[in-house]
């Protein structure tokens, strides 16, 4: 028997990240952001970030959209829960929550200096794969599917594990 077998996971839980993401649509286009801090080549994905300790996911998303993109947004329904196992040397285990988010049609996001995003783009649904790749692309595709079907998607690294009726 190992120490892990004897560990009290309630009293001594492992560290986990809590990430939040926004699916922001305007007609057939969605908002994506570049994150140049991720790779030597910018990685495109949904806007968001990490929640602080004891911060509710929807509050974190609202805060991050305001801080990073100057958006006063209405955080809507949960559409995706994406579980991400730890990748040694890269990131801790985490759970990412993606929500539908509404912004007024006449408002444009502006990347703030402290926002950690490179730029924003409105892209057609069909063209997302021209910029986003890998796990980020899979998560975006599942968010779009969840928006279309009205079902919350549970994912593992962007791949569906099951759908939950809204």
Condensed summary:
It contains three helices and nine strands. With 166 residues, the chain is an alpha+beta fold.
Please provide a written account of the structure.
The protein is 20% helix and 37% strand. The protein is of the alpha+beta class and 166 residues long. It has one domain: Nucleoside Triphosphate Pyrophosphohydrolase. Strands 1, 2, 3, 4, 5, 6, 7, 8 and 9 form a nine-stranded mixed sheet that branches. A hairpin with a 7-residue loop joins strand 2 and strand 3. It is globular and about 55 Å long.
Total discrete domains: 1
CATH architecture descriptor name: Alpha-Beta Complex
State the helicity in percent bands.
10-25%
Query: What class, by secondary structure content?
Result: alpha+beta
Low-confidence stretches: none
Q: What is the general shape? A: globular
Indicate the CATH class.
Answer: Alpha Beta
N- to C-terminal distance:
42 Å
- Number of DSSP helical runs: 3
